[in-house]
TrEMBL record, chain A:
Record's subcellular location: Membrane
Organism lineage string: Bacteria, Bacillati, Bacillota, Bacilli, Bacillales
InterPro entries xref list: GerAC_N, Spore_GerAC-like, Spore_GerAC-like_C, Spore_GerAC_C_sf
This protein's name: Ger(X)C family spore germination protein
Family of the protein in this entry: Belongs to the GerABKC lipoprotein family.
UniProtKB/TrEMBL annotation, chain B:
UniProt keyword terms in alphabetical order: Germination, Membrane, Transmembrane, Transmembrane helix, Transport
Organism the protein comes from: Peribacillus deserti
Residue ranges crossing the lipid bilayer per the database entry: 12-30, 36-58, 78-96, 116-132, 144-166, 186-205, 217-240, 270-295, 307-327, 339-359
Subcellular location: Membrane
Main localization, broad class: membrane
Record bears the keyword Transport: yes
Bilayer topology annotation: Multi-pass membrane protein
Domain of life of the native organism: Bacteria
Cellular component, GO annotation: membrane
Name of this chain's protein: Spore gernimation protein
Family: Belongs to the amino acid-polyamine-organocation (APC) superfamily. Spore germination protein (SGP) (TC 2.A.3.9) family.
Amino acid sequence: MKRKFVFILSFFITACLLAGCSNYRELRDAAFIAGIGIDWLKEKQRYQITFQAFSPSPAGSSSSSGSGSGPPGSALFMAEGRTISEAARQASKKFSRMPDYSHVRIVIIGDDLAKSESLNFIFDVFERDANIRANIPVLIARGTSGKEVLSVIPATEHPVESINGKVKNSAKMQGENQATEVYQIINQLSSKGSEPTIGGISVVASKDPSSPNKKATKLSGMGIIKEGKLVGWLDGTKSKSISFLNNQIIQTNESIRCDSHQYTSVRITDSRSKIKVRMNSGRPEIVIHVNALGVLDEMLCNRKIMDYDVLHEYEQKTSNNILSHIRDGINQAKSQKSDIFGFGDILHRQHPEQWKKNENRWNDVFSKSKVSIHVNFNLHGTSMRIEPYPYK
Amino acid sequence: MKKKIRIGSLQFFCLIFLFELGSAVLFGMAKEARQAAWITIIFGIVSGCILFSVYLGLHKKYPDLPLTAYSRKIAGKYIGWGIGFAYVIYFSYLAVRVLRDYEELLVISQYHNTSLLTLGLYMIASIIYVMFKGFEVFSRVSQVCFFVFLFVGMPVIILELSAQLLQPANLLPVLENGWMPVLKAFFPSTLTVPFGEMVAFTMLLPYVKDHKTAKKIGYAGIIVSGLYLSFRTAMNIAAIGPDVRIRSTFPILTEIGLVEIGNFIQRLDAIVLVILVILGFVKIFIFFYCALLGISDLFNLNEPKKMIYPLGILIILSAVLVAPNFNTHMDIGFKIVPIYMHLPFQIAIPVLLLLIAIIKTKFKKSRTNQST
């Protein structure tokens, strides 16, 4: 009996002890970092890190009290350091709470850092640290700094959520701006057969009167990286080429001319690409087949869409549109000598022995490549109406 | 004597399965073979079966004795005792190594500020507790663990598939540098860990019902666990690519860390960590128990349980002292241990013992033939 009692007692005592307080952190002492901006201070030769945290609002005060009174809790602070980790520790001098990096949602790289310094090393901490994730989207602050981008405070949302939402929506709706995640960038930086592209974000004047600091952020283009440095931008429809070739298109929209000055819109709902790369007398031959499917979703001119010929003409025009996006994108990549589409990796997969001979000068070889693109677009519907309404 | 310990065939299978997965899942196998890693593991299965047939051959000759006992019968009293003692040291050292692996895993991934000693203490405390309950209890525990593994491990695979993490393109090109890297990755590292580590079962085979069951279940266990490892490795490569795999300390955690479904299902590391700790528990237990069996056999102890505490404390302390840091620990584990420890203990000595045993029986037979 006594033995049993001792056993049960020791059970409770050890249960209390084992639950433990090692590595514990109180929620009220923690600040969850949502976004990190990384800039390069040339004069000081240091990284400047901007942290945008979810600011914990004091109990009782509702943070969503209305527009004009500022957005729901965000707190911005900055620190400098020779490494990103050093800066993160330095930040403790300026911020009262323990930063927690496990919920970082976005990383923004300053223009200067991307252009003049190399991106090669800065992602190491994201891979090495066990708390921070490697699947965080990265953006480049186009023409500005990470600090500027993160300090733009929208009226209704948390700044980081606002940026994140834009990235996700734009990728889904339009396919021009893709979110490149840290681990993908690392893979592409370390691969000889591909270079990363990183989406750009710029700060523009806001027309929204409720915006607290009259500024807004806007996604713009995809940055072309070569050997760790930002060398150019793919803008507008050209940047769709990346999504088309990487099969990342979820939806996008093509405007095709239907008479002298009016356009018809086609929504692309599905697109699959097949790429073949092989070497032919020292030049890579790249053959691209794209199969796309879509519906007509807006018609601004009066044509007999029931006619097979008209339908076929639209299909043809849409195909040509897609083809020109891809061609323009590839041409720019070729002129920048940066294989952002990963054709080298495809050659590596398809013809390893040919890749071996060219892997060390792939970017030069790639710039001489011969590209043939075949697009097959099928229109599979015209939505809720067949013919447009007749107008006088 | 003590009552005879008996384990069922399903329990035996679970033991082999969890034991084989052990640290192989944790560190990722045959990283140097890049995309062909899964082929290397298939080779490993074949060679593992061949090695196991050697252990089975020894078991057939001495169905009731562990390795440390029949080594004395085969190689003579003194040499055999020496061999047995070397095996005790080998098993305890492997227990130490696996314990250290798991301590490091926990410190690196979650418990950043906890000391190795503390974590080792908890692990060994639970092992010692089960050990006092006896091996039969452990084999039943391993059966439970196996089902926990199934119910937690399989959903993780499904989640990974539904997160669209796997890119089959990562698996290509296979064998771009020919067969050499595959063979290099196979010998000695894939051969010895985990397939050669089945040598621990030479101590445990006497607990299995009869030789036939040991044979059937043993091969099944090796093949099933090997195929699972091969499949999981291919998945790992498809998810994170061969380059990241080589760079990362724990490829499986890197892989799981990328799972994100709808901003909602994410951070599955903790779940996988639970599985990894279970696997570690089984593996450390088996090595620890083999060392204990060896000691009690070599020194003819009446009460082998008395040796549990000293051995446990020794293992906890050596796990901290065995290497100054993680990188040295890994370096020793991948460069020195396979060649100087695994090869002799897993292949050379058992093969030699079997050869001597076969020659001896032949010799005896001819002598009896002559006398009649």
